[in-house]
Amino acid sequence: MYRIYVILVILSLTLSACAPASVSIWGVAQTPTPDSSLNPGISLFDPFVVQDSPIIFPTSTTPPQIETETAYTPTATATQNGILPAVELTTAVTAIPSFDTAPFLYYAQSGDMLSAVANRFGVEESEIISDADLTKTTLIDPGTLLIIPNRITEEMSPNIEIMPDAEIIFSFTAADFSVSEYVQQADGYLAKFRDYLGSTGWINGDQAVERLAVENSINPRLLLGLLEFESRWVRGQPIDALHIDYPMGFDDYHYKGMTVQMVWAINNMAIAYYGWRAGTLTHLVFPDDSTLRIDPRLNAGTVAIQYLFSRVHSRSQWEQIINPSSGFPAMYLEMFGDPWARADAVNPIFPAVLNQPALTLPFEPEVEWSMTGGPHNAWGQINPNIYDTTHSVFAAIDFAPSTDHGGCDPTPTWVTASAPGLVVRSNNGAVMVDLDGDGYEQTGWNILYMHIAKVDRVPLGTWLEINDRIGHASCEGGVSTGTHLHFARKYNGEWVTADGPIPFIMDGWRVVAGEKAYDGKLVRGDEVVLADPVGQKWSNIFRDIPEDEEE
């Protein structure tokens, strides 16, 4: 046993997984010393480095409460869609029903699946009644009427939708939006701000927001709206000293600086958005540990906004913030026009009867690879001491080629195209392939190939066919213990869960999640490949020779 233990320890140091490395990812700031007036401080991790495994930090301090008086008060300013309307709505909580309360008449929304709807409403799947045959689909067709018993006996958040899903994710609503143009015209603090990061050096504030939006698949308008609401960075100056260093109001020294504050906001919204999709999130928890049941009829975009603001604001402040006539939704409308009109032009995110296109394993036939990571975060890292990781939804898997030395050594093996498509992004270790070929990452199916080495990487604008070479797996673009490929799917700008309602299937191999991040397996008939971070034999997989190449 001792010999086996030693062998496993050695292997764990040589093979591959998305995980923190022992080498610092920061580098040293260029001389002269950064101008403190332009750079509020360098954070302790790099937001533009993919860090898929949790980095364990000390428990964060409870952020100070923001004074209610700083809440945004809209003015009657004309927008591109007209004058702000006077909205007579209240954010008072929903009354507590009794057990004989009439059932909910709920119309399914894009992205709903039966198990998630049942969890959100607190009922069994079998108790949900519909004229539609709910057993024949994993995603319920949008607009399907569901009759659901009302068993909720807790007070609930307001049943007022304040943000469409398409304004949360990197959807086609963002295709015509220029972050740089908007920021420079607004001429606020962000227009002159620069961050220094180890992976990029100096980066302008608008460029940082743009890159965060693209890489995290989050809507850039939303990021600017949040910065403006919490700190006045976009159209004015920071409201106080705290919001210079912590513009989102999250007072934790690991998240000091604009870019990493936005990463904190993005991660929280992703936890809520995808947790609501999966039905794992049902309650908000405020800084004083009080809770509030989320109204199960809300859409994922509204829940993402409600959840984010509940992380750093008291219940009374939160109720003001989500008020559509005077809070964040009103300011967002004033800044960018009607988000619902934009969303209506691109909805639904998931159309009826959506299936994944045929995919092959992303490497050449008869070459040994290992599945080194089951389903985990599509982008970034989720620190369990900062975030509520119980609602994380995992979209990516990892493969590693067989290597002589392990670690981050270069490999001659090739990552290949799993499906035909157009390369719409090829930088910073990432290759994004647009399968519908329209040139937009925000539409249709897109496949992310991450940690692709710069040498021999396929250039932007290349049309790929199945089996065409994309590049070599590496450690580039992230923190990793070894050379590997990080592989994920998106549809209409939304990350698609690896083991969810739209199965992740490659050459007949289906991804099955484990109980925690990185656990999992590939299953094809009675064949099973188990994910293993050190690439032991049960994780080895070979791609079959295509039928048209067989003799």
Describe this structure in words.
The chain is α+β, with helices and mostly antiparallel strands and 551 residues long. The chain has 3 domains: 68-87 and 159-346; 104-148; 369-549, Glucose Permease (Domain IIA) (Distorted Sandwich). Helices cover 21% and strands 17% of the residues. The protein is built from 12 helices and 23 strands. Strands 9, 10, 12, 13, 14, 15, 17, 18 and 23 form a 9-stranded antiparallel beta sheet that branches. Strands 19-20-21-22 form a 4-stranded antiparallel beta sheet, with no helix packed on it. The longest helix has 21 residues, at 258-278. The protein starts with a helix and ends in a 10-residue tail after the last strand. Mean pLDDT is 84; it is low at 2-16, 20-42 and 53-90.
Number of separate domains: 3
Helices, by number, come to 12
Poorly predicted sequence stretches spanning 5 or more consecutive residues: 2-16, 20-42, 53-90
**Helical/strand content category:** alpha+beta
Helix coverage percent of residues? Answer: 10-25%
